What does this fold into?
Amino acid sequence: MRKVNRPFLVLFSLFFLLFLISCGGTQQPTPTQPPTPEPIHTPTAAPASGSASGEYTLAAEQDSNIPGVPAGLTEDGIPYRGNPDASVVIEEFSDFQCPFCGRYVKETEPQIVETYLKPGKVRLVFHQFPLRSIHPQAEPAAQAALCAGVQGKFWAMHDLLFEHQAEWSGKENAEEVFQDLAEKIGLDKKAFQACLEAKPFSEFIEKDRQRGLERGVRGTPAFFINGWFIGGAEAFGTFQGIIEKALAGERPTPTPTLSYADLHPFEPNPETPGRTYLGDAYIGSGTARVVLLEISDPLCPYCRKHHLEVWPTFKKEFVDTGQVRVVYKHLLGRGTKSLVPAEAAECAGNQQKFFDYLDTLFAHVDEWSKQSGDTLMATLKKYAADLGLDVDEFSSCLENHEMREKVQKDSRTMLQANVRSTPTFIVIVGTQSLGRIPGFLTIEQWRDVMSQVQDALKTLENK
It folds into this structure.
């Protein structure tokens, strides 16, 4: 196990299913787990009922902002532009403040427009998917686009919001910028301002967001093309390959819809206290903006050093204050010498005492590391009793190796993710990685890291 002398924080590094070129970390498709195909909706001339509250309703006829290209609303009241009878439908789930969504609009979409939209081969449907936790102005921008849509100018506002993203993203005067954009596209400014103040599309936006969650979206931009899925601001060639398949009538093989654990692996699962939806032990607030993924081994000397010297202060300053939630993953480097104690910690975790038990293991490593067989089992049970656990329940879990597969699966996953040493820490916001930190850090170094994390959060919000 190795020690590092200073923080190592590389923004946006890659790490298994988190490290993707998208806001929020949209999951990429794999040959064995493509998304469930969705039906293609045929547009109608009028929006679905309840598209907004009160007097504000999206106009049935929309200006596509592209000469010669039609636009309107789907039968669900969602804005589209392109041939309403096109055999290929590109459904985009997007966030107006997301920099990667802006990159797609700037670099990729123009090529799609020229190659497929203008010739009438595809229809583009735009769904709202604001990432509220990291993009506070995304929903106000969505309201602005939809308020423009009341006057038939959704797509004109859509295009300008992305074109001028840097002018309003992260700014306190965002609504003033929206007003300026409204003037540029010739809207009735008083009517537009009244709509912005009323925020009539909140329910509409949330319903759109739920559509995305139900279909496996967990970041932006995300696209469904006749059931095919693309996650992130991919190059035109990626879209072209799938669009051509869709034009040829090909569809992806149906598979079960992704579970909530796949979409939000590090969120607390209310049905299993102390564990995430993926089954990992965690400590800290369920609403913490930052997740620290700790990858560790009970026999790792620098893991022990972290827990004995740094963890109490780190927990007090960052975990107990609600800033950070720590989620634990195993990477065993000593075979069965680490395996059984790791299983014991997981069994304690079934009684919401995982981290207490882990601390006990590190504090007494000189004792249990020299033991094996029945002697080791007796010692591990004694630690459980000292922590006030139900010893019978703990013993049954440990003796039947109920948590062995969980521990071994963690190790396999970490190795596949190219994590080779312990401790290793991954800093995560939502489902987006902010960096990998290998090795031991002092509390002063951790404070520096957390300062960098806060700066990174501000950078994400301002992009």
